[in-house]
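Could you join me in thinking about how sequence relates to backbone shape in a protein? To get us started, please write out a protein record for me. Would you write everything just below, so we can both look at the same thing?
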Amino acid sequence: MERSIEAPRTFRGSAVAVGLLLLGAFVTYGGGTALVNSVLAADDPASALSTGEMALRVGAILMLADALFVAVIGVLLYAVGRGVGERVAVGYLATRIIEAVGLAVGVIFVLLPVTLGDHQVGDVATLTAIAGQGNALAYRIAMIALGIGSVPFWYLAYSARLVPRFLAALGMAGYAIFFAGYALDILGLDVGLLLAIPGGLFEVALAIWLIARGFSSPSVAQIATPEVSMAVAR
């Protein structure tokens, strides 16, 4: 007995939302990190904290906004991808949620000098060092999760032609390099930021494409993923 599979909708509104959220994530995390580092990475942390506590708090809020953005991106892209690969889409959503949680944990570390400083728990230099290192580790774990979920998702998009194949291929390669970079960071090699560049370029290109053109709506015959092929044959 054959089972009909509905071709994916264009999800025009979701495409624009994902594009704007991707760009917003760059702005919020980049701006938040700059504000946070102006305090945590200062030569005199105690003095920087006393004069820059508000900057630290605002930076933490921006970083938390980034965590919210990536979770919403996961939900929106899950809705787009589940019509052509349910299991891959679920895996992508799960890793986006892990990423969001990791980023939120990083914010908790960032706020340690403020929340514990008033209770005189350790000196400020120690607290800022723990905050910086804890945030960096949480960020790396979050990025590793993103890489794990993104490679199969963009392979799914490549197979289903949800976006131009050259763009999906850039996503697969970019996130594979991205994952490798932050995994090597965990092992002590400081190459994560450098190897994140291809993935970052992909996200910017994807954001522009989705805002301008949106997702494609392929027919079932165009979808080459084993999961969909098996479903059609039943």
